[in-house]
Amino acid sequence: AQSVSQHNHHVILSEAASLELGCNYSYGGTVNLFWYVQYPGQHLQLLLKYFSGDPLVKGIKGFEAEFIKSKFSFNLRKPSVQWSDTAEYFCAVGNSGNTPLVFGKGTRLSVIA
Amino acid sequence: GAGVSQSPSNKVTEKGKDVELRCDPISGHTALYWYRQSLGQGLEFLIYFQGNSAPDKSGLPSDRFSAERTGGSVSTLTIQRTQQEDSAVYLCASSQRTGTGQPQHFGDGTRLSIL
């Protein structure tokens, strides 16, 4: 069965600091990878996705993620965080078969001024 | 509407009662998913529907949980004889189709509290 690990439960950063949130998955086949974000009081929103092609994908709000197949990883990055990036971030994996996404447990990001 | 709509937004009920949670997916989306989000546990898949195919119920935690999708659109998740461990946020998502990594669009969820 697929599983997704997000190693950081809670990350606290100052504004302008760089961000990297780890995501590792277990599945040997073709995967589709997603990062979702949940701002306080809001629903889950898609941040970025990887299906194929360039393993470095750009998302909204300056986020990017890199798919490293050999490491089964899809880490999320942002060069300079803002207070408005305070949210919970979820990594998710789907395969090319007819199965729903498998989500990680989420990483809570708190950005302080 | 423009997004996935869920109702009620909050539900408080006594242990042992039955509850029904409703989801209106985005118009034209053929796939509909139910997830449960518990504190510190991420999202747990419950059930999904794709078109007229038989639903995948593999994530339902017990036979107290069931779901229907009428007319390929609105879905209802029913929990019978609720227990305190059922307290969670129940999220519904829809997508244009499954199997090709189509992104799922989420509703605001129903926060269920069992007293």
Notes on the structure:
The complex is a heterodimer of chains A (113) and B (115). Chain A has 113 residues and is mainly β. Chain A has strands at 3-5, 10-14, 19-21, 24-26, 31-38, 45-50, 56-58, 64-68, 73-78, 87-95, 102-103, 107-112. Chain A is globular and about 40 Å long. The model of chain A has no long low-confidence stretch (mean pLDDT 92). Chain B is built from no helices and 10 strands. Chain B has one domain (5-98): Immunoglobulin-like (Sandwich), CATH 2.60.40. Chain B is globular, with a radius of gyration of 13 Å. Chains A and B meet through strand 5, strand 6, strand 10 and strand 11 of A and strand 5 and strand 9 of B.
What are its keywords?
heterodimer, A: 113 residues, mainly beta, Immunoglobulin-like, six-stranded mixed sheet, four-stranded antiparallel sheet, B: 115 residues
Question: What topology emerges from the helices and strands here?
Answer:
The complex is a heterodimer of chains A (113) and B (115).
Chain A: E1 3-5, E2 10-14, E3 19-21, E4 24-26, E5 31-38, E6 45-50, E7 56-58, E8 64-68, E9 73-78, E10 87-95, E11 102-103, E12 107-112
Parallel strand pairs in A: 2-12
Antiparallel strand pairs in A: 1-4, 3-9, 5-6, 5-10, 7-8, 8-9, 10-11, 10-12
Chain B: E1 5-7, E2 10-13, E3 19-24, E4 31-38, E5 42-50, E6 65-69, E7 75-79, E8 88-95, E9 105-106, E10 110-114
Parallel strand pairs in B: 2-10
Antiparallel strand pairs in B: 1-3, 3-7, 4-5, 4-8, 6-7, 8-9, 8-10
